[in-house]
Specification:
By secondary structure, the protein is of the alpha/beta class. It has a single domain, classed as Rossmann fold. The protein has 7 helices and 9 strands. Strands 3-2-1-4-5-6-7 form a 7-stranded parallel beta sheet, sandwiched between helices. Helix 1 links the parallel strand 1 and strand 2. Keywords: Oxidoreductase. It holds the Pfam family adh_short. Belongs to the short-chain dehydrogenases/reductases (SDR) family.
């Protein structure tokens, strides 16, 4: 049987590409989903030596598109180990009071509802692998505990996504799926924002390695919201198993961190 794969939504985005890199680093096949074909192709070029990376153009912007994507995923030969939802919109600055109500409505449509559309159609595809539940991880940004000054609309939409994750966490349990949110309490460092990035901002790869740690661990299995952990941003000491078993394998590593 083929090794199970991890589906990454928003794979060609700034955070999604780091998650893809971390999963490949950990030895997991990856199904990379994104709306922009050219950005997906650039992602493939960055990992040209990785046979475990498969590209799938697609969107979860609404129910219809999410259903089409789920139908394509259901036809794939590999079983699905997990879904990582790294879909995110652009954070537009400004005060809530300075913009029309319709502006916030559009942000809710663009930044919150796609997470629900994705979960509605992809959760049923996640079965149990042995005794392990299916896994579904959402990526949550800052400003969920308190408002982010100057980014009022983003504060509302990200907080709404956090509550959505809490509700879906409960509703996914009868399906045999463990749904969790990885909470990142600061912006993510990227090449694009390096000029003004603050010390301590995690990189996209560090976020991805936290995702790998969540998939590989049985700790905090009952928690919906899991905080980003700097220790989990280090390269993995173990690889995600290449078969359906939930356990990890620990091959000997050479000096550069690759399997010996």
């Amino acid at each position: 049987m083929l090794a199970p794969e991890v589906l990454v939504l928003g794979a060609s985005g700034k955070v999604g590409s780091g998650i893809v890199a971390a999963l490949l680093e950990a030895g997991s096949p990856v199904l990379a989903v994104g709306r922009d074909r050219r950005r997906l192709e650039r992602l493939a070029e960055e990992h040209a030596d990785e046979p475990g990376l498969v590209l799938l153009p697609g969107s979860v912007a609404n129910d219809r598109q999410a259903a089409r994507l789920a139908a394509q995923v259901a036809e794939r030969p590999r079983p699905l180990r997990a879904v990582v939802d790294a879909v995110g919109g652009a954070h537009r600055s400004g005060r809530l009071l300075d913009g029309p109500v319709s502006s916030l409505r559009r942000m809710l449509d663009d930044d919150v509802l796609p997470h629900l559309a994705a979960a509605r159609h992809l959760l049923p595809l996640l079965g149990r692998h042995g005794d392990a539940p299916g896994r579904y991880i959402l990526i949550g940004g800052p400003q969920t505990e308190c408002g982010w000054s100057g980014y009022g609309q983003a504060s509302v939409t990200v907080a709404a996504s956090r509550m959505l994750a809490k509700v879906l966490h409960e509703e996914a349990q009868p399906l045999g799926v463990r749904l969790q949110l990885l909470a990142i309490d600061s912006p993510v460092w990227t090449v694009d924002n390096a000029a003004h990035a603050c010390t301590g901002w995690p990189s996209a790869l560090a976020v991805g390695r936290n995702v790998v740690a969540m998939l590989a661990s049985h700790a905090e299995r009952g928690r919906c919201v899991v905080a980003f952990s700097p220790p989990h941003a280090a390269p993995p000491h173990r690889l995600l198993a290449g078969d359906i078993a939930p356990s990890l394998v620990a091959p000997p590593l050479s000096g550069d961190g690759r399997p010996a």
